[in-house]
């Protein structure tokens, strides 16, 4: 395999200040003519090399004269040039309707659209397809007017007109130089929901959300979120939009969430379409977050882009941090932080502990698509968050102003960003930079010893080895720390931000009036694993008294984890501490129901497994179910009270969302208790629901139960939504996630269901992706789960390598399991690697999973 290395970066030999593209669009065959003005970058005599993807140029000309001294080397078109500036023209023909990879120009639902990040543009035309080549684009499109009445591209529309034979044309111009990965066009039969936004300097921006006509009624939430995001970025970061139009197009076939193409964002329709009957609260929140994320990229990504793909977190980590801040401001800051940390622990911690671990700024890759990971995105966001806490809010804002100002219009690096933080903050971030270079989640052990009025906090850190990095240096861990009085329950100290930057350190607290209880890593100030020797009693105490809601949640999680691990590993099941703490939380009338719902939820099976030396999925399941049953039984009255609370006609407000969330958690506990009426209660909620959150919540409870009502509910749900692809995804997903003995067999049967297709990434993820997240079913001792995943992945790889490769990581966690399971996983990985014609995407993931 060809390995691309960060240290091998060299500036481009040729720049392309201007590009004119002319598309004769049709699904079967599209002609692309490209005119590139190229200028030599520095003194050299090397030819022009343009990236391609297997196409043959139909013609090549230099300065208006057809040439034939070009050659194809690998996938590159090599054109010898004599002077320092030339105009190169090429023509190719591509077949959008045969593009199943969904990279480049492809067809979705009868429309044509593009996806170019990271390296899709080379599938459209020959070009130096790297992010440090910035060009001003002019685009002309011609297409059949009946099939493709709407023609959109980046920037602002210029002109359009009619042609003979039912065709029409449009031209667009984007004045902002941009890399090829931000190029986009859409041709289709689309309806638009229009809005407008007036920026802080008075520019009136025309907004448009483009979807198929029948989905138009589901676009108001996305449009509203877009306006909120535009206003938020002005207020919080001083960032203003810079074109006269901002368009978003929703397509059903999309490899990931969405794409920030300049002025023309293209979205997976699941992150645009919503109404109360078809989208859950989770969907609504995700739509607002992704709309904001892509919009925020206009500054963190587009105005300032990445020099090379090793810098991907420069735009993604920062933009995730920005969208997290936006979402936090829309509702409860504490609940948002809890959700983000739960996501980090579910996706990024396992990645950091497995064979695919990589630093936030990787050193090498085979296929860049494999590096759009939780580490780059979510751990990357935590790095920004740590720098923001070290600087404090005002200084952080000054530092981002400096960054936006200094690097506007350029392709920058993570180092450039950190240097701005350092300069504006007047701090030394030399050691902090290790966060970009060292993979692995740091482990911190914290012990608090108190004698009289004095307490000593001893901290030790250890960064575990990861593939290619055996020895790690201590990192800077910003830990928010506070002490509480064990008797009074009040604060004994102010909160302190401890910059813990050595292998071992001690911190002394004096003048303490009573025995202190340690609250540490408050707000999850550092993305680390804290091991403390706090007793169950102290954790229960913090879960009731800590004044940081995140720390309260965290104390409860730790208490639950300790209980569950003890029970799964040693078969010791003392549930009393957890039951008392949960009861206390449920009875605390002052708490936000959304917070309560998070706090009383048990850690996931996979997170419990992460705490064990050898993951035992059966023991974890049994331990978790036993605790759920006890919590359900002992707190039956409280759960029923929660279930009756806040019932009101649907509204999408933080308050109503909180009640819905708590009700669905309560329903789950009532079902876990084995109560005779549990299935009836769930079915009644399923039928009475005036929104998808309650309906899907009830269905989720039913499918994991034994009542035949689950069959009825699944049928009703299917028939009601059989023409709605996004809701059918939910129908597949709830079944794949069900906690049942027969889930493996059900999922195998669903792969043959007439509505199942691997051609649509959402559908593939809804069934196969969800199944591999189902610990009990996926890790079935006979290896049937592993085989199912490998079969589907191999089949999907022939169509869509990028999406196939994203499904692989669960198989790579093999070293965490017993020898039998580990051997079965290895066998499937070996079968995958031995598959003829395997993509480099899947090869990289599978071979690294075998080595690591
Ligand atoms: N830049 C897009 C976003 O985060 C995602 C692009 C993903 N590309 C990929 N090759 N996986 O908003
Ligand atoms: Zn992004």
TrEMBL record:
Family, per entry: Belongs to the peptidase M1 family.
Domain Peptidase M1 membrane alanine aminopeptidase: 222-432
GO molecular function, one term: metallopeptidase activity
Domain Aminopeptidase N-like N-terminal span(s) in chain numbering: 85-182
Keywords tagged on the record: Aminopeptidase, Hydrolase, Metal-binding, Metalloprotease, Protease, Zinc
Domain of life: Bacteria
Entry annotated with the keyword Aminoacyl-tRNA synthetase: no
Name of the protein in question: Aminopeptidase N
Residue span(s) of domain Peptidase M1 alanyl aminopeptidase C-terminal: 537-851
Top EC class of this enzyme: hydrolase
Organism encoding this protein: Sphingomonas ginsenosidivorax
Catalytic activity: Release of an N-terminal amino acid, Xaa-|-Yaa- from a peptide, amide or arylamide. Xaa is preferably Ala, but may be most amino acids including Pro (slow action). When a terminal hydrophobic residue is followed by a prolyl residue, the two may be released as an intact Xaa-Pro dipeptide
UniProt xrefs under CDD domains: M1_APN
Reported cofactor(s): Zn(2+)
Domain (Peptidase M1 alanyl aminopeptidase Ig-like fold): residue spans on this chain: 440-532
Enzyme nomenclature, EC number: 3.4.11.2
GO biological process: proteolysis
